[in-house]
Amino acid sequence: MTNAWWKECVFYQIYPRSFMDSNGDGIGDLNGIIAKLDYLKWLGIGAIWLNPVYDSPNDDMGYDIRDYEKIMTEFGTMADFDRLLSEAHQRGMRLIMDLVVNHSSDEHAWFVESRKEKDNPYRDYYIWRPGKNGKEPNNWASFFTPSAWKHDPASNEWYLHLFSEKQPDLNWENPQVREAVFAMINRWFDRGIDGFRMDVINVIGKKPGLPDGGKTPGMTGYVMADEQFANQPQTHEYLREMRKRCFAGRDVMCVGETPFVTREIAPDYLVPEGTELDMLFQFELMDIDSGPGGKWDIVPWSPGKLKSILFGWQEALKDSWNSLFWANHDQPRPVSRFGCDDNEELRVRSAKMLATLMLLLRGTPFIYQGEEIGMTNVPFSDPAELRDIESLRFYEIAAARGEGAQTWQRILAKGRDNARTPMQWDDSAYAGFSTGEPWIRMNPNYPVINVRAAQTDPNSVLHYYRDLIALRNSHPSLIYGETQAVFPEHPQVAGYLRRLDDAAWLVLVNLSGEWAELVLPEAFAGGQVVLSNVTTPPSNDGLLLYEARVIKLG
Ligand code: ISL
Ligand code: CA
């Protein structure tokens, strides 16, 4: 276990389209981000993760890349990017980018060539197969459409797309593809960026022969065939090759986005350190309210289950390193999902509680824009207000079956656009995000929930995040110390100790909306409360609803 900058700093995720618009066209941009760097520095942020800013037709909001080495026109130019990078570095902040190389856009020059004819030199950059009896080559479902295959009439073959048909999967078996990707990565590193978040990086290697999926025999229709494309042995080889070819001799990091990774297999990507991924984003926590039918099959979560997931990962990765997050651009807002947004008092208190629980665990915290002011889910009133391909496709398919009404409720709870409305900077028109009408509607609560209001209120969620980040930044024991769960059986309270050498901390939070009885043992009751989200003096008999307490024990 070694110390590293990416273990010590708090990351902030920026969704550029919705962060800050500098020219009034309603679309966030790189100059807008530059204008807010001082805000991030004030907050205590050490590194920024930018969602894709590359040239893209935006079928999946930048996750369909047309040119890996050109900036999306609405976002600015390469000169703007270089300025953003140097302005961040001047403030002592690092910057990592999104690497989306499981697939490209169908408008990428490689795919344009690839689909031209069967003997095109780029044909093998993608995954083409003949059909079976006039149907798809196999039964794999895509994340966004029923089938993961698209028929190409010109050649009468099909190409694989695990996401939309405008996101064809690259063929990583082809050494030329790997060479091209590694060269591109190296050029970005030469530009001076500090690392990558790697989009669905654990699905780049597909099982040879592309066999049908179906975890339970007799399944019909298109199936989510992750056992055939996730976490395959070749993927580990590709990552090791990437590491050697691109990372050696550079002070850069990577965090993999890895759906379908369990606590058991996660260490295969992380240990020994520095050979594959530095960290990964696991989805067990984000799937806590998903039933067997997937994210839209919503089931209740419980504090007990949440605790077993969080502490289970602390244990599973104690010889490597966790990523810590409640939110990203694909997830609903945490205060609406895991806290309470019924009224202002509880919104503020529960947002602080969630922050306390997550940010002081062992691992690197990733804060998603707006989380630090406790932004909530959005009361969309009509599908026409949505922009996200996943929700729109899901709605179309369900509405055609006459299930529009129940589907709408699911989209309100879990739809990705909840996280994608503009950042709320102040209470002026369009929340200070833009002077023009934004590309997606605003959350109507911006007159109350915004950065300026939060900065002037010392009891705001924002100030609490800042205090929490400062606490973590200034105590190595809160970064590198070991984690030990306490009161594991308690049905409402999550608690843990962090310890390093002589330093010891106790973190206690009540995840429920009710008083939680908990008699503190002598050893804990004597500690000093250094941070709390309530004004009443701490009780040794229990915690108020959504109360959070950070106690210094030694
Ligand atoms: O968003 C999800 C659930 O709503 C996830 O299943 C998500 O599709 C998956 O985690 C992969 O996400 C990443 O790759 C996608 C892109 O749409 C997401 O925005 C990105 O985070 C395809 O590139
Ligand atoms: Ca703009």
Write the layout of secondary structure elements.
Elements: H1 5-8, E1 11-14, H2 30-35, H3 37-43, E2 47-50, E3 54-55, E4 67-71, H4 78-90, E5 94-99, H5 109-114, E6 128-130, E7 149-152, E8 157-160, H6 175-191, E9 195-198, H7 226-229, H8 233-247, E10 253-257, H9 266-270, E11 279-281, E12 290-291, E13 294-298, H10 303-316, E14 323-324, H11 334-337, H12 344-359, E15 364-368, H13 389-400, H14 404-414, H15 451-456, H16 461-474, H17 476-480, E16 482-486, E17 493-500, E18 503-510, E19 516-517, H18 522-525, E20 528-532, E21 542-543, E22 548-552
Parallel strand pairs: 1-2, 1-15, 2-5, 5-9, 9-10, 10-11, 14-15
Antiparallel strand pairs: 3-4, 6-8, 7-8, 12-13, 16-17, 17-18, 18-22, 19-21, 20-22
Helix pairs in contact: 6-8, 12-16, 13-14
Bound molecules: 6-O-alpha-D-glucopyranosyl-D-fructose (ISL) and calcium ion (CA).
Calcium ion (CA) binds next to loops.
